[in-house]
Sequence to fold (540 residues):
Amino acid sequence: MKRTLGIVTLVALMLVSPFLGGQSKDFKTGQSLDIQFSVLRELSLFYVDSIKIDKLVQTGIDAMLESLDPYTVYIPEEDEESLEMLTTGTYGGIGALIKKVDEGIEISEVYDNSPAAKAGIVAGDILLRVDTSSTKDLTVEQCSSKMKGTPGTTVVFLMKRLRGDKTEEIKITRERIHFPDVPYWGMISDTVGYIRITGFTVDGSKDVKSALVNLKNNQGMKRLVLDLRGNGGGLLDEAVNIVSLFVPSGTKVVSALGKYKQTDAAYYTKEEPVDLKLPLIVLVNSGSASSAEIVAGALQDLDRATIAGTRTFGKGLIQSIRDVGYNNKIKLTTAKYYTPSGRCVQAIDYSNRNEDGSVGSIPDSLVKSFKTKLGRTVYDGGGIIPDVKIEPESYSRVSLSLIYSDIIRDYSVQYFKNRESIAAPDKFNLTDAEFEEFVKYAAKREFDHRTASEVEYDKLLSIAKREGLIDEFSDEIKKLESKIKLDKAGAIKKNSEEIKHLLEEEISSRYYYQKGRLQSIVRNDKQLMQAANASLIKSE
Fold:
């Protein structure tokens, strides 16, 4: 107790001493720190149970930062790996996702060209032991921690293999696992190129440039779709570098304005562009945020691209990583960013959002208009509003239930177990017999197979019972029930087209990894196809 109190006292004195000189403008800060120290001292000395002061302080820090905005967070020393993932998209490990099952830990997905893939590990293999630790009593987090490690070190697994059901020991050397910012690119028609960008990590713009050059020089591309849907952002410099591929060198992309002049900055393109005239469509949705919005907003303001899809997330805040001592760091909001026209896309109200996280309704009185390079009117208030609004397809309730209950994923593993190969993802189709096989498989599993209509019917029935109307309308209710109520097989067949597509995507990923999944998704993506054919904003 004395040792802990001594540390707290030392820290408090270090923090409070600059403010002991009198009633300066920072007096209240010093007063608050003094009160905080007194509270910790009283807890340390007199609280009835033993407490860990460091844990208590971290709880206080987390709560304090949470009250500011959703993006200012404390990063303790032990979370340094998370910081590396955030900035570089890499970590040390074997390159696999896992989930908990009765036998231990199951491999859920393997990354292409990873140590796991090189060792022949596949989704559906059961991990029984990591080095000397049985996985039966390990949580997913504990097992993941043991699987990760410094690149070059080794880990030994005892695996029960999906194919053959044999048990064998596998020794794997960990590597630096990198999640590319461009997981897939290609041609989606004879003339339309496509680049999917999922993040903005170190040197990610180089991957975008490489894909762009290849499509332009070798694939006969006449227009390009940049897909930023679901892209939560990343490094601002990489966003600027991507914009630089399409606009003249020296073009202003974004401005940052903060509390102090030293945080203010303007970011201009530095590299020579790849193509200034290529017709460009940027596809966005409510999951496109931060650096993704910088790219979309800049290309829209400069009249260099047509923005298609739905309104973006509305995160116009810039975070900086600062050291707070003892290898701990804080990621804090230091500025707001502004597009070339002067718009701040930050949602006005952090809390006023829809269920999917997208920007909620904004009063017209709070929205300001701005002009693009060619004089078109654009607006602030939260997110980037597309030039061409294209709503995404929505999945049926039954399809979502099959996804969340892992039934589609589990069937894909069984499919992979029993078949050595399939056609390429852009050509692979389930046969009618194979789909019927899935229907029988799913009907034996537990999942909520009610359609949206049936859910509403159940609500209606509950209200009718409460109001005493059941007997009065019993015949009508029975007739309605006979038309709405479906068994599991009936509910799946009712939504067969979209469920079949979901199965083909999941099965493709078993054979062709994440790239195969995306390639399969693209061919059935109606929102993407509409965007690819959208009317273009005329640039200079």
